[in-house]
Amino acid sequence: MAPLSEAGIQELRAKTLEARKLSYSPYSKFKVSAVLLTDDGQYIEGANIENASYGACICAEQTAIVKAVTTGHKNFVAIGISSSAGTVTPPCGICRQVIREFAPQIDVYMFTEKEDYLMQPLTALLPHSFGPEDLLDLPAK
């Protein structure tokens, strides 16, 4: 996939920062958002949703992916991620795997509140990954 233009990066950044308002994080106060850009130009927002039972928390990236897939979107150009930490926040390991399921070649843009950002292809964040193709050709038993 080709990297986004500077204008595309700034639009994804703005939508990602805005989506942090959707976070439900009363326990950690750590607000995270993720915005997927689909191949048809739509932006799909997600935010972290906490739960008093911490194991039931849902990450922003997972929220965005589930929302996208359940509304018929499976082709993505980029994903933007932002947190209230003030620094670049990469996706956690589980989120990397969830993103990988649907977008193994996606570019991941990690934004700060300032103009700073880091872009890494998912292949750099999750090298030698395991995906659907590793299961499709298994012999029948």
From TrEMBL:
Reactions catalysed: 2'-deoxycytidine + H2O + H(+) = 2'-deoxyuridine + NH4(+); cytidine + H2O + H(+) = uridine + NH4(+)
Sequence ranges assigned to domain CMP/dCMP-type deaminase in this UniProt record: 7-133
Superkingdom per UniProt: Eukaryota
Keywords: Hydrolase, Metal-binding, Zinc
Pfam families associated with the record: dCMP_cyt_deam_1
Protein EC: 3.5.4.5
PROSITE patterns associated with the record: CYT_DCMP_DEAMINASES_1, CYT_DCMP_DEAMINASES_2
Names of required cofactors: Zn(2+)
Family matches, as NCBIfam families: cyt_deam_tetra, PRK05578.1
Family per record: Belongs to the cytidine and deoxycytidylate deaminase family.
Primary role: This enzyme scavenges exogenous and endogenous cytidine and 2'-deoxycytidine for UMP synthesis.
UniProt name for this protein: Cytidine deaminase
